[in-house]
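Re: the request from the purification team.
They wanted to know what the chain is likely to look like in 3D before they choose a buffer screen. I agreed to run a prediction and write the result into the notebook, where they can find it.
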Amino acid sequence: MSKLKRNASWLDSFDFGEFDESVSKTINLSQEGHNEKTENSFHVPTSFPITKKSSCSLSALLNACSAQKQSELAVSKQKQNEISKWFQEKVKLGNPNILVISGPSGCGKTEAIKIIAKENNFDIVEWITPMDQAVDESNRMMRQGERFEDFLIRATRYSSVLSDCSRRLLLIKDIPNSYIEGKDDFVVLLQKYCQYGREPLVFINTETSNSKLLTTLFSQSNRDRYRIDLININATTPTALKNIMKRVSSILNSKASHMLHITQEKIDEVLSNNIGDVRSALLNLIFLSLKVTRKFDSECTHREETLGLLHGIGRVINPKRTFQGTSWKFVHNPDDLASTFHSHANTFIKFIHENYLNTIGSNVDGANLAIDTISLADVMNSEWRDANIHKLALSYCVRGVMIANDKPVSQWNPVRKPLHSEHDVQRNFDIAEVKWYENYIKPKLKKEINRAELPESIIEEITDW
């Protein structure tokens, strides 16, 4: 009996999938050491109550939220039709065709090409840059560019027995760095693919601030020479993003209800801070909707602002207050203003010094207090032995000027630039230093030399000097 119990507990540790019926088996156990077999029958239940497991993996949740048909894509109908038209009109059997899909991050480029390719009976073969090193038949280490070239040539020549699609499409999202640095090698690769390739090839280009693929690898001359088509996809519109969030919210609540609780309020919060990136919006929605014990309420209730220099000066010299009975407080926290400009504290103090009288009006006492504060801040800012003293000087200056101007004059006042900035002073020092050295290296002649009295050789030497 003890052996049977151990076997039952061992079986319980396995996941047998979903069972609809209860099945029992009769196990015949024979006792060892006896000639005669004594059959003892035990009914061991092998049906286990299977509960539908909720997904806890982030990758599984993202796969569940991915689009399954064209109507669920974030790409516009016009761009979907352009991709479908490329499959139907440009792609021909046995001919290599190249397409570049360009657009910002998270706009749905990869999802669109995968779904439309599947609807046109194409199987996706995607290149993923390997992290490990490989060797060839001669036991020689292969470079990343060589492996990429081998992939492009071989992937179109051998079909897979596991695929139901009649044709294949090569998808490249990550071009090896060796081709990005050497564009001539990439041109040679395109020539080889046009000679030996048999299936269409699609490159995904993510537009960033430093992306130069369209001007280097996929320049207009290369596109014309190798007949490369280009489709530009814009960022996701707010309406399309709203529809996607509405669709995925029900999926996430059903598959991960034990860890997520998605509400319309959280969806609106994510949409207000998104700039057309579906992937970023989905990740933010998942992390924002986690069921965790929160000691504080979410502070992500409005779009984070980027405070410029002129805007920050305006909030200091024209402070706004809110009154609650006999007490008051500033609308804009002085700590937040000071922390925004820690990196250039000296410049901010100089701007305050130049513009604080614009709004202080005829308040002589306030002007006296403000100039005393700015003067002390200048003295503190001149201390170079402690790096934190500049932050203290900025905080002291911001608080002092805001408190001194208790009745600011409400009128339009342009912010003036300080008359003597650090750049001008440094430039003047540089000019003075250059002139000082020139007095020793190339001193000017004290008197005019009569060139007519000097020989030509001396005149040429003076001129060269």
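For the purification team: Confidence is low (pLDDT under 50) at residues 1-52.
Please add any questions underneath this entry.
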